[in-house]
Amino acid sequence: METIANDFTINIATANGTGSQSANLILLQSLFEMGVPVSGKNMFPSNISGLPTWYIVRLSDHGYQAPGNRTHIQVLLNPATWHEDLESLEPGSVVIWNENAKMEMTREDVVSYPIPMSALARKINPKIAKLVTNIIYVGVLAELLGIDQTELESAVAKQFKGKDSAIELNITALGLGRDYFKDNLEKIDPYTVEKRTIEKPQFFIEGNEAVALGCIYGGVQMLAWYPITPSSSLAEGIINYIPQLRTDDDGKVTCAVIQAEDELAAAGMVLGAGWAGGRGMTATSGPGISLMQEFIGLGYFAEIPSVFWDVNRVGPSTGLPTRTQQSDITMLYEGSHGDTQHIVLIPGTVEECFEFGWRAFDYAERFQTPIFGLSDLDLGMNRWACEGFEYPDQDMDRGKVVRDRDMFEAFEEFGRYLDVDGDGIPYRTLPGSGMDPILYRGTGHNTKGVYSEKPHDYFDLMQRLKKKIEGARDLLPAPILREEEECEVGIIYLGSMENTIQEIDDILESTGIKVSQCRVRALPMHSEVENFISRHEITIVLEINRDGQLYGILRKELPNNLITKVRSVAYSDGVPPRAGIYAERILETLKGDGQ
Amino acid sequence: MSDKPKRPARAIKLNMLDEPKDSYTGGKSSLCPGCGHDQISNVIITAAWENGIEPHRVAKMSGIGCSSKTPAYYLGQSHGFNTVHGRMPSVTTGAYAINKDLLYIGVSGDGDSASIGIGQLIHAIRRNMDMVYIVENNGVYGLTKGQYSATADIGSKKKKGVVNETQPIDLCALAINLGCSFVARSFSGSKKQLGSLIKAAMSHKGFALIDVISPCVTFNNNDESMRSYGYVKENEITLHMTDYIPHFNPVEEIEVPEGHFRDITLHDGSTIRLETISAEHDPGSAVAALTSLHEAESSQKHVTGLLYFDNSKPSLAEDMELVDTPLVDVPDTVLRPGKDTLDKINAALHS
User: How many Å lie between the alpha carbon of A549 and the closest alpha carbon of chain B?
Assistant: First the structure.
């Protein structure tokens, strides 16, 4: 039998709250430590206990990180999804199933490995059999696929750091799973795991934790937040790092944390912090940003440095709270009523999550405006390989602040909203400093900050704000271009699509189409994006949403002669992007163009 | 301010910082002439001057509405933030986290505090944030021309419109129940009482709520209510209405001795009965404070004075365990941990 090494997808169907997440992470970590390029996607429900959960482990020597287009090995524990999961399998797939689940194996065209998981687990400890059942299937998989026992044990130790009894229990359970398979079943499937040499050591980390760490190194001084999936772990990440990194010898902290009463209050606190001269931030998701709209407009109009992280989930409304999407792009870019335009930073890797975490504060104080970080559930809550974080390569940029009397006196004329340097960015003074006190307001104002309804005051102010944000384009993170040779087709994409793009590219190439890539990393878009479009016959804008939001922004901002070159491929079903679906749609679109 | 040139010898009264009262004034008011809110602004000016507060160490905070416009009319040397409707408490909370050493004076109205922003008010009280929170309470939405607010009395009737049959929210009772550490009620015309309360609130460490009855000169016309001009005029003798003040003059200044009440005539001719809480009242007793509020309500009076006070509660800064230096003054090199710390984290993640 021919073997298939490191190129298959495992789907593990369990119920939420049974402890399967620990078992799955042990599996993922041990594969990772064997040097196998692997990714894990947690498809969890909006529920604490009892509803179906799937964990998708993709092994790919190509480095593909997206969930595969099909399942090769199905682990079946959950009676609630049993039939649905079974029916979705292609003939020849492997099924490892819990014989004690009181469910039937209804497929004859699959490789069936029945395991009495519950009975084995009860042998160890009947009281926690449900919990132990999960680790049993990891043992079975280890035996089936050839996962090193040493890597498994080291992953268990990592998962249950210092809890010796838990480590012992789990290692025993792994052994039971392994032994049961060895003693009772014969391997008749082709899937195996092969060790790979690790060239650069990497670790696994969630995007939310990477942003949190970045914020700590950005000198965050106030975190105001309201719990919401999938952003809570970002806020909690900051909270967890404060004792280690932002606490003095007396146990006092340099970062205030306030759990707000709602997202409106969280946004208000962020603006208050910025107004007072500090680095304030919040972390939320789309529904929270919806609630914050009023303050976002105030931040833009009164010009208050502020940082908002949006870990995008599926909308509209409550939507699918535990699924991923890129659908808040327009809301962030044009947030709040009236004419607005906001700076949005869009990381696509965990390294960028860290970097944009600290940079966001510099941009906020430089441009005196709300800055958004746009992540998503896939990037934020799943684990990604990372080589390590790089320390900020420049000092904190505190922006144009008049800090002392001499600096103040040097101005020929001073006005809080007076454009002295011609870049649209005025100078500000801070409360408590005694310099040029003004009453900040969300009402129309002149260059001194005084209420004004005069047509030219309003017009000039709005033009200056436009100039200020437009001026940020080429100072924000430039797009990442992959353009090795001249191609007719370009693909523009953003954020977590980074993890699927290579596979899409390979699928397209297998049909004879070579494309170049441009990953947008900030709004307003860098001039390089426009140049990229002008260099290609057709550019496809690839997004995880229904309406093609980034495409819409491009259509609005591109010169007329380029608009006709741009096409939209937007698709979203809540699942992290699978390459096949997008590649197919790209091909259809190109066909329409006669390519 | 000490390096200012010496002032010419004039008979101008100076405070302990050698500042004239002029240093504490603001711009010209654009409120209706005679508005009670302007009287409150003047009391704030006097209180800050008399307390010898450095104007630049004050932060003037407000929401949206007639009352929230007033920070432009006092303490012109202080920074301020006229935020959005009902959300002044959250903005103040964020500012306070960054600079806990400023004196935060918030001014709000009954629309701002009892309706759209009641949640934020409640949570600012719950956190015991250090601030003076003045509600300029007139029972109506002034800027949108006279709709009832959530503090309007039952039975109020506007010139055009229906009788208000929804029961009012008593912000003082609410605050006492929430454990607010300083709760007072006063009247815009009670210059002396209000002045003392504001001065005391400025010195209080924690959240100080002062609900100030501040009648609206323009929209508080309850013609058919029992407190209306018409009603009062007909019953002039029984109500001893001898000092009616015509429209567009500030309401009279009034001081009511402790334990006594007086009927105050408002712009529209209606009267309001104010009782100053008695000297025997124990402001440390929430039960006594709530009793006096409920008794006043049932006898259609408003009880004024310091109703409840508790200086034993930790303030928000203590709760947050912040470093002693206000965060705004903490150097960047302290805010950003050193490179060695990130090296350690990377190493730990790799292990």
Answer: 29
Supply the CATH classification number for the domain A4-192.
3.40.920.10
Interface of B with A in 295-334 (CB under 8 A): 320-324, 326-328, 330, 332, 334
Name the residue of chain B whose CA is nearest to A440's CA. B81
Q: How far is A469 from chain B (nearest CA, A)?
A: 22
User: CA of A37 to nearest chain B CA: how many angstroms apart?
Assistant: 16
The tens digit of pLDDT for each residue in B128-176 reads 999 999 999 988 888 887 788 898 888 777 666 678 889 999 999 999 9
Query: Which of A48-62, A189-203, A234-248 holds the top average pLDDT?
Result: A234-248
pLDDT at B227 over 90: no
B153: domain CATH number? 3.40.50.970
**A-chain residues near B350 (CB < 8 A):** 201, 203, 388
Cα B263 to Cα B239: distance, rounded to the nearest angstrom: 8
Please give the CATH topology (third level) of the domain spanning A205-386: Rossmann fold (3.40.50)
A480-592: CATH, from 3.30.450.20, 3.40.50.1820, 3.40.50.920, 2.130.10.10 = 3.40.50.920
pLDDT at B256 (0 to 100) = 81
Is B90 a domain residue? yes
Interchain contact A217–B (C-beta under 8 A): yes
Reading the block at residue A143, the tokens are 């035996």
Distance CA B81, CA B151 (A): 25
Domain containing B287: what range?
21-324
Average pLDDT (A488-514) is 96
Band of the pLDDT at B229, cuts 50, 70, 90?
very low
Report chain B residues whose CB lies below 8 A from the CB of A248: 323
Instruction: Find chain B residues with C-beta within 8 A of A258's C-beta.
Output: 93-94, 97, 127, 320
More confident residue, B162 or A165: A165
Task: Locate A502 and state its tokens.
Answer: 């290579």
pLDDT of residue B233: 36
In this prediction, what percent of chain A has a pLDDT beyond 70? 100
Report yes or no: B102 at the A interface, CB cutoff 8 Å. yes
How many residues in chain A? Answer: 595
Which of A159, A202, A223, A258 would you mutate first to test chain B, the one with the most B CBs within 10 A?
A258
Across the interface, whether the CB atoms of B322 and A262 are under 8 A apart is answered: no
Indicate if A480-592 has the same CATH topology as A205-386.
yes
Residue B323 pLDDT > 90, yes or no?
Answer: yes
CB contact burial A489-504 (16+ within 10 A = b; e otherwise): bbbbbbbbbbbbbbbb
B99: nearest Cα among B298, B345, B350, B317: B317
What is the side-by-side strand order in the sheet with A111-115? A38-43, A52-60, A7-15, A73-76, A94-98, A111-115
Cβ–Cβ gap A275/B94 under 8 Å? yes
The mean pLDDT of chain A is 96
Q: Is A31's Cβ below 8 Å from some Cβ in B?
A: no
- Quote the pTM value: 0.93
Quick check: A389 and B342 CB within 8 A?
yes
Best mutation site among B327, B334, B341, B346 for testing chain A: the one with the most A CBs within 10 Å?
B327
pLDDT at B270: 64
